[in-house]
Amino acid sequence: VESEPTDAHARARARALVACMEAEIARLVDELAYARAAVESEPDAGKREYREEIVRRVEAALDKCRKISETVTTKAATTTMAVRRVHASTLSLAAFRREYVATDIPVVITGLEDELTEDGADGEKCAWLLERGGTKKVAVTRNDAHVKSELSCASADVVDLSEHFHAVMRDESPGSYLYDCSIPLKLPSLGECVRIPRYFAHDYAQQTMRLHAFSRSWPSLFVAAKDTRSSLHVDQWQGHFFMAQVRGTKRWTVFHRDDTAYLQPSWRRGTLDPALPALSTFDDTRMAFAKYARRWDVDLGPGEVLFVPGGAPHAVHNIDATVAFAGNFIDETNIDRALFDLRLMGLNQGAAMMATFGALDEVEFDPTLGAFEDTTTNMRNLVVRCDEYIGGAAASLPFTRG
């Protein structure tokens, strides 16, 4: 326990901090009562099991916060950690899995800027997007609706992809966002244009014997107006995440998955992944525990690729108008957590999600597949086409292809 401050102002701050901690603990106690009541009122056995897991997660968060409140009186704000940048020519696929994925540490991979699209060094100009997909219709959210839980017909417009692209690049459509649009399902012509970094191409979700709910979800396209944001959230079923930045800069904030309890999580919406408050609320008067959460901040620029560990809360601010593509993935480091959540989601949501659990659970995946120790200065060997990625063929391709 740290020594009691002697300065009157410091003592007042300490009392305010304790009061804020007590308020958060009281809120979690209320959350726990709410979650337990939801279990008691649920007649369906499967949905009841799902809600019992929510109870366990609230209990775990409450326990973590109580332990800190009992042992610490004051603490300086946690220093934000920098995300390491590593050039692809020095990062083998196996080293990436070992040093970053297995340790839950985000990383930015550089050096692939000429390989992310079919246009090579000119990929940032996005001619590939306009020529191959410009006339395709896409649903674009307006007025930042994607972060306000207000998605509806009134908050989205269906427009040509080229119209949306030009509007956001000219700063003529503030608050507009093409968000997480599946390329295989909705923009298949763009699948011929983008290249998946091989660091993520061993995705178990692509190696199943049967199709499932996420077989064709990724890569997905993001085209965002300047100053739009993705609110703090956790991706479902503990999926790891990658993003390849093609144009513009996104400012990322990532928290360690084990520290979600300190971010004022709420499970009242009834999902395994909790709702989280906006980053703008993170101060000692409202978020007493947030300073104990390990945090990384990084600006992701054109040609860079970011890895975000599964289960890690993250938020994004588009500093410029941006174009990027992304995806979730599963491997040996998060398969057990993913299966755990997917089975419960199947019990709660029905047959399609349970079939996804079954498709992943029935396969004995090889954790060494595609984990080449080699490094290379030929960046072309470090990306694969979408048709090689979808269906899992990329994991078995020879490493050097000329």
Automatic annotation (TrEMBL):
PROSITE patterns, sorted: JMJC
Signal peptide: none
A Pfam family of this chain: Cupin_8
GO cellular component: cytoplasm; nucleus
Gene Ontology molecular-function annotations: histone H4R3 demethylase activity; P-TEFb complex binding
SUPFAM superfamilies documented for this protein: Clavaminate synthase-like
Domain JmjC: 185-346
Family under the similarity heading: Belongs to the JARID1 histone demethylase family.
Protein name as it appears in the record: JmjC domain-containing protein
Originating organism: Ostreococcus mediterraneus
Lineage, uppermost ranks: Eukaryota, Viridiplantae, Chlorophyta, Mamiellophyceae, Mamiellales
